[in-house]
């Protein structure tokens, strides 16, 4: 997948579940996305500062720094630029959805998710 300038869409995936990160990264790379992996919230913030993702897929419950906190930081954006933020979580309560929205998330995806639906979501947000 490419942006309007024909550069690959950069996707940051942050989750403390290594298997979840690996499976999603393989799927996205096979579709042409440029993927960077983070093993938690603090790592996600460090990776985002260097990688400048177009889209960030963030687990909400990471032990070192929650996805809510990461989203708040990323939505401030350097130079007025911030990635499209997607919460990818096992939390399905309305409270989690509301907190995600307040924290700056644009989309909310519940685990387990359908891989084709995830690809469709990424295709729609990466055309911005």
Give an account of the 3D structure.
This protein has 128 residues and is α/β, with parallel strands linked by helices. It has a single domain (10-125), classed as Rossmann fold (3-Layer(aba) Sandwich). Helix content is 43%, strand content 19%. The protein has 5 helices and 5 strands. The chain has a 5-stranded parallel sheet with strand order 2-1-3-4-5, with helices on both faces. Helix 4 (94-103) links the parallel strand 4 (84-89) and strand 5. The longest helix is centred in the first third of the chain and has 13 residues, at 18-30. The protein is globular, with a radius of gyration of 13 Å. The model has no long low-confidence stretch (mean pLDDT 90).
Structure at a glance:
Helix content is 43%, strand content 19%. It has 128 residues and is of the alpha/beta class.
The CATH superfamily bears the name Response regulator
Distance between the termini: 12 Å
Anisotropy-based shape:
globular
* CATH architecture descriptor: 3-Layer(aba) Sandwich
SS field, number of helical segments: 5
CATH topological fold name: Rossmann fold
Category from helices, strands and their pairing: alpha/beta
Strand line-up across the major sheet:
2-1-3-4-5
CATH first level: which class? Alpha Beta
